[in-house]
Design a protein that fits this description.
Layout: H1 2-11, H2 14-24, H3 26-36, E1 42-46, E2 59-64, H4 67-76, E3 81-84, E4 97-103, H5 112-121, E5 123-134, H6 137-140, H7 145-157, H8 162-169, E6 171-179, E7 182-189
Parallel strand pairs: 1-2, 1-4, 2-3, 4-5
Antiparallel strand pairs: 5-7, 6-7
Helix pairs in contact: 1-7
The structure holds S-adenosylmethionine.
């Protein structure tokens, strides 16, 4: 099952994740974007990974399908709450959070409609999805040998390009350039009746 393969692949790269993502510029770009979006109140970071984005908010909860990622996030940020769970079945009541965000994860969600509906359901204010656009990080920067297996697995899974899909339905609300060929973009996700 694809979801199991994704979970396993991420679980295996936890120890390289922060170092590599810091180098790629991804962490800074996402921080720039979230500073521009005036996010306040209680935040849920969906597919939080090692919790990099949670760190930037006073009150935030992170959720990820990989137990290894969640363990690492808890170790790094013991004062924040992290939960193991699937975006398609968020274990929270309606409107629990003010803002719900998801960074660099949309491609991985197998049932994208359920994922977005779940994010909207647990948010009382706004939902933002951030994705990369242009040449993917793994094609621009040489990865450590240990990450090669992960990237090979990604190639086999043939993840679709998220930016194109998001543009079809949602508005871009912020962007941060990494270099001329690569940037991060935030889309505000709204219920179809709100459009
Ligand atoms: C590229 S990482 C992004 C992590 C973090 N958001 C960041 O910006 O550094 C993608 C994350 O999505 C998680 N993920 C994939 N499918 C998921 C699902 N169905 N539900 C929750 N998390 C999922 C993976 O375990 C992984 O930690």
């Amino acid at each position: 099952m694809v979801k199991t393969r994704i979970t396993k692949a991420f679980g295996a790269v936890v120890s390289f994740y922060d170092g590599y993502m810091g180098e790629t510029g991804h962490v800074n770009a996402q921080r720039i974007i979230f500073n521009r979006l005036n996010i306040d109140g209680l935040v849920l970071d969906v597919a939080t990974g090692t919790g990099i984005m949670v760190e930037g908010f006073d009150k935030a909860v992170g959720i990820d399908i990989s137990m290894e990622m969640v363990k690492e996030a808890k170790k790094k940020y013991p004062d924040k709450e992290f939960v193991v769970g699937d975006i398609e079945y968020l274990p929270f009541k309606n409107d629990t959070f003010d803002f719900v965000i998801s960074c660099l994860a949309f491609s991985w969600f197998q049932d994208k409609r359920s994922a977005l509906e779940e994010m909207l359901r647990v948010s009382s204010e706004k939902v933002f999805v951030v994705e990369e656009e242009g040449t993917p990080v793994r094609k621009r920067i040489e990865a450590p040998d240990d990450l090669e297996l992960f990237f090979e697995e990604i190639e086999r899974l043939e993840m679709p390009i998220s930016a194109e899909e998001l543009d079809k339905s949602y508005r871009r609300v912020a962007e941060a350039d990494i270099d001329g060929s690569h940037k991060f973009v935030a889309w505000e996700v709204k219920k179809s009746t709100d459009e």
